[in-house]
Write a structure and sequence with these properties.
This protein is 29% helix and 18% strand. The chain is α+β, with helices and mostly antiparallel strands. It has an eight-stranded mixed beta sheet with strand order 6-7-8-9-10-5-11-12, with helices on both faces. The longest helix is centred in the middle third of the chain and has 19 residues.
Length: 506
């Protein structure tokens, strides 16, 4: 093993105690397993969310599905196959009308409650000793017994559909992706010319072409001959894509200017630090107005803890997206001020939505749905650079809470079977969820977990600043046995992750 290898380091907390549910408000009905992640690789987190885990800040939790009051099923959307519904088109047109004419719709938003970042997790504190050891450089001194153990099995993602690959990779344009700017009168942002698509055309040119065609028709009916250059045929039978609706041409003079910026969650990034205080104030305003929080519940320290402190290590890969993997804030700037922020994780096979907060003044614009559509479109852009990155994860789908069913409207989508960890189309899952809050979606009664724990002795632990297999640790350990706890942890993360992730042992 290389001395500079990155490791995921976690503390496992179990999940015996019930706590308050943010959905049905049951004071003791929400149950989940939890662990504090001091640091985490993007591949490990990808594998964990594909086993039903999810992060809130650095706390990573997995609902106990057959015990918790409101089972939470991981949901993903096939970004490349997504087509906006009528309601999605209505929202995009509403945004366009506001930007072009300055008309803010009357009334409240049409039902898109975002996940509450604080209520569902039953947060536990990490060990201060482990925090110190996680930062210690001596952790890279790997014991000999680790390097002599058999190689770790390569992780394979179970998917219902393989991500399409392209024989030609479009040119990467880091500036346009990182900046992500979309002004009302500007051409659509992107990553350079796609040779497989017709060239983009400006609204002014399209309007001229339509006027010219009308003039030709009028002259033809009037019997007046005229010599006009032929115009290229337009494809009227092609349905508009999501990008067509998002970037639909608007009049040259608009009332507002919308700009979308992607900034890494890093206090070393100048864009992130320059907008930090404005972002903190917007978060507090949103939490108090939309979720009814007290000022103490949405302080700067809470904001930083839940939406800035990410365990994910920024990584770059030759076949990955230009901006790399990690945690990002997608900021929506309207006329020079931030009106919404989507917190996202860019992972090896997906963009994972973490949270969204926005200015309550613009609640009627349905910014929750609009940001989801923008993030689906963003996933499609990234897939052109990294072919396997083709899914958009919306977090958890909670069928027992009617207000949270809106996530199922982004089709085609799959839910994760809580027993076999295979993806099943949501259409096949809904009839089962109508009959029971908890359901096994896999139809094969003999199917099981492909990464089921087989040998807990091979799980890696961090003990006295040294990495070793659990089997070696048991020979060094003093005190009572912790095998039951380690067995539970390793079973929940699966054999492959257990052999890569470091479980802290005091």
């Amino acid at each position: 093993m290389a001395g500079n290898k990155s490791y995921t380091i976690v503390e496992y907390f179990g999940g015996d105690d019930g706590y308050r549910c943010g959905y049905c408000k049951n004071e003791k009905g929400n149950f989940s397993h939890g662990m504090w992640s001091h640091t985490m690789t993007v591949q490990d987190y990808q594998d964990l969310i594909d086993r039903g885990w999810r992060r809130s800040g650095k706390y990573v939790y997995k609902p106990i599905m057959n015990k918790t009051c409101c089972p939470q099923y991981t949901i993903r959307c096939h970004a490349l196959k997504f087509q906006p519904s009528k309601s999605h088109k209505k929202i995009l047109k509403k945004i366009s009308k506001f930007i072009s004419k300055g008309e803010l719709p009357k009334g409240q938003e049409d039902g898109e409650p975002m996940d509450s970042v604080c209520e569902e997790t039953g947060l536990r504190e990490p060990s201060k000793v482990c925090q110190a050891e996680a930062k210690c450089a001596a952790i890279t001194e790997i014991q000999k017994e680790v390097s002599e153990r058999p190689g770790i099995t390569e992780v394979q993602t179970e998917e219902t559909d393989a991500a399409p690959t392209s024989s030609e990779t479009p040119r990467k344009d880091a500036e346009s992706l990182l900046d992500g700017r979309t002004t009302a009168a500007a051409p659509k942002p992107g990553m350079g010319v796609d040779p497989n698509r017709p060239p983009c055309r400006k609204a002014k040119d399209l309007r001229k072409e339509r006027r010219l065609q009308k003039e030709q028709m009028r002259q033809h009916t009037d019997g007046v001959s005229s010599i006009v250059a032929p115009t290229p045929p337009t494809q009227t039978n092609q349905p508009k894509t999501l990008e067509d609706f998002i970037d639909e041409s608007l009049p040259d003079n608009t009332s507002h200017c919308l700009e979308v910026r992607l900034v890494p969650v890093s206090f070393e990034d100048p864009q992130f630090t320059a907008s930090y205080q404005q972002s903190v104030a917007l978060y507090a305003r949103y939490q108090m107005a939309i979720h009814g929080d007290d000022a103490s519940e949405c302080s700067e320290s809470e904001f930083r803890r839940f939406l800035c402190d990410s365990p994910l290590e920024a990584e770059n890969s030759p076949d990955g997206p230009e901006m790399g993997y990690g945690s990002f804030h997608q900021q929506y700037w309207l006329d020079g001020r931030i009106v919404a922020v989507g917190v996202i994780d860019i992972l090896p096979t997906c963009v994972s939505s973490v949270y969204l907060y926005y200015h309550p003044e613009f609640a009627s614009l349905s910014l929750g749905s609009y940001s989801a559509l923008r993030e689906i479109s963003f996933t499609r852009q990234l897939q052109k650079q990294s072919p396997k990155l083709s899914y958009y994860y919306l977090g958890f789908y909670i069928h027992s809470c009617p207000k949270m069913r809106y996530k199922g409207q982004y089709r085609p989508s799959d839910l994760l079977c809580p027993e076999t960890y295979v993806w099943v189309p949501i259409e096949r899952c809904l009839p089962q969820l109508e009959n029971s809050r908890y359901a096994r979606f896999s139809q094969d009664p003999d199917a099981g977990d492909a990464r089921v724990l087989k040998d807990v002795g091979r799980a890696l632990v961090l003990y006295r600043r040294t990495v070793m297999p659990y089997e070696a640790y048991t020979r060094k350990r003093k005190g009572s046995s912790d095998e039951t706890e380690v067995q539970q942890y390793a079973g929940l993360v699966g054999q492959d992750c257990a052999e890569r992730i470091l479980l802290y042992r005091a």
